[in-house]
From TrEMBL:
Protein name as it appears in the record: Nucleoside diphosphate kinase
Lineage: Bacteria, Bacillati, Actinomycetota, Actinomycetes, Kineosporiales
Catalyzed reaction equations: a 2'-deoxyribonucleoside 5'-diphosphate + ATP = a 2'-deoxyribonucleoside 5'-triphosphate + ADP; a ribonucleoside 5'-diphosphate + ATP = a ribonucleoside 5'-triphosphate + ADP
EC identifiers of the protein: 2.7.4.6
GO molecular function: nucleoside diphosphate kinase activity
Organism of this sequence: Kineosporia succinea
Length: 140
């Protein structure tokens, strides 16, 4: 089986609630390596590329506004099948539906009507992972 890399983001709600360490801990506890790490407030240009599949959707504007509302931690996690494994660790997109035991199920605090405040992002395929890692870590 191939070693993969995936892009993980701790979104502004996760940073605000001091959940950076907990998210990284869960990745490492599962046996994966954090091979790159940085904290930044993303630009609208970066987010437009990152969320290119969502440009034009009704929630796009508020998603970008939320993602620029504070610092984001970007990490690259590496290991066997890490793309699917991190999606499993993260849980369902909607924190209300995310199972207890998952990052979103356990840690999302600001859900209310805002699906977007779901603590983390993880790449959904090898193609997305390569593209997203290139955007957030151009030197890798
Ligand atoms: P994912 O993050 O679980 O892969 P995607 O469908 O790729 O989910 O959506 C990207 C992000 O856009 C979600 O994590 C969430 O923050 C936001 N989002 C997705 N669907 C909605 C929606 O219907 N309303 C508001 N925000 C949404």
């Amino acid at each position: 089986m191939a070693t993969e890399r995936t892009l993980v983001l701790v979104k502004p709600d996760g940073v605000r609630h001091r959940q950076i360490g907990e998210v990284l801990r869960r990745i490492e506890a599962k046996g994966y390596d954090i091979v790159a790490l940085q904290q930044l407030v993303p630009t609208a240009e970066l987010l437009e590329k990152h969320y290119e599949e969502h440009v034009g959707k009704p929630f796009y504007g508020s998603l970008v506004e939320f993602m620029m509302s504070g610092p984001v931690v970007a990490a690259v996690a590496e290991g066997e099948q890490v793309i699917a494994a991190f999606r499993s660790l993260a849980g369902a997109t909607d924190p209300i539906k995310a199972a207890p035991g998952s990052i979103r199920g356990d840690l999302a605090r600001d859900w209310g009507t805002k699906v977007q405040q779901n603590v983390v992002h993880g790449s959904d395929s090898p193609e997305s992972a390569e593209r997203e890692i290139g955007l957030w870590f151009p030197a890798l």
